[in-house]
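sry for the spam today, last one i promise. struct tokens for design, 265 residues
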């Protein structure tokens, strides 16, 4: 009898653990790793080329929490969008500015279509999207805010990491200007963190629901890391550390995990 009850307790505990893991995987917001696969392109020099203005926009799905870029094309800077493509590799390569600033490019009419920026390797596009009425509106980024003095907020499952970054914030962190670009979806809007100088992606982040004062559109912010850290692009090889993220108008800084850095002394 004792064996029977202890066996039932063991099975009950195992079932609870399994359901707990499933709940964790389903309930927590997260980003899927972008495919990042190399797409072979045939950059035929004799293919027709059209001069265009391009703008990277970020979209996400409430069903699959993955944030991906699309490229909107217009005939002129500030002009009406005529086509919207997905990027074939599933992410924003270095050739494309990820902060929404329009840039001049060439559309190579090929299969798949290619977007050539300057003399760099062309970017393969795919699957033209339906175009709603819009224009290439250039986002206005103000000067970064002053460093925060309010407590750090985090998602509920990340609270165990807050103490360490709170100590960082209470010391003398290194503040790096960033740009924050939304990828609208449902009630939990992910944000893409971009380096202003080259438009490369540094991180992607969901914000805690308790955070107040977040602007609806792109805005400037700060990333706080330990001194002696060179922040790398999100897919570059480097050490992974925790830091803080703070945007214009935010009530509090938030925990930002998985920042890629290289120690520089």
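last one done:
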């Amino acid at each position: 009898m004792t064996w029977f009850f202890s066996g039932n307790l063991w099975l009950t505990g195992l079932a609870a653990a399994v359901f707990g893991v499933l709940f964790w995987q389903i309930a927590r917001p997260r980003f899927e790793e972008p495919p990042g696969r190399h797409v072979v392109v045939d950059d035929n020099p004799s293919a027709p080329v059209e001069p265009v203005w391009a703008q990277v926009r970020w979209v996400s799905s409430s069903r699959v929490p993955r944030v991906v870029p699309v490229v909107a094309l217009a005939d002129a800077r500030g002009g009406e969008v005529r086509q919207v493509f997905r990027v074939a590799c599933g992410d924003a390569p270095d050739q494309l500015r990820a902060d929404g600033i329009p840039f001049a490019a060439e559309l190579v009419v090929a299969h798949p279509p290619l977007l050539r920026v300057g003399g760099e390797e062309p970017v393969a596009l795919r699957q033209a999207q339906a175009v709603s009425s819009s224009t290439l509106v250039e986002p206005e980024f103000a000067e970064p805010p002053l460093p925060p003095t309010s407590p750090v907020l985090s998602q509920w499952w990340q609270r165990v990491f807050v103490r360490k970054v709170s100590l960082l914030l209470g010391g003398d962190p290194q503040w790096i200007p960033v740009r924050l670009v939304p990828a609208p979806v449902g009630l939990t809007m992910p944000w893409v963190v971009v380096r202003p100088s080259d438009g490369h992606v540094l991180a992607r982040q969901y914000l805690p629901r308790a955070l107040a004062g977040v602007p609806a559109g792109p805005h400037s912010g700060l990333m706080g890391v330990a001194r002696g850290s060179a922040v790398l692009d999100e897919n570059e090889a480097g050490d992974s550390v925790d830091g803080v993220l703070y945007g214009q108008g935010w009530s509090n800084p938030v925990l930002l995990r998985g920042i890629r850095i290289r120690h520089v002394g």
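Residues 23-38 have pLDDT under 50 and may be disordered. ok im logging off now
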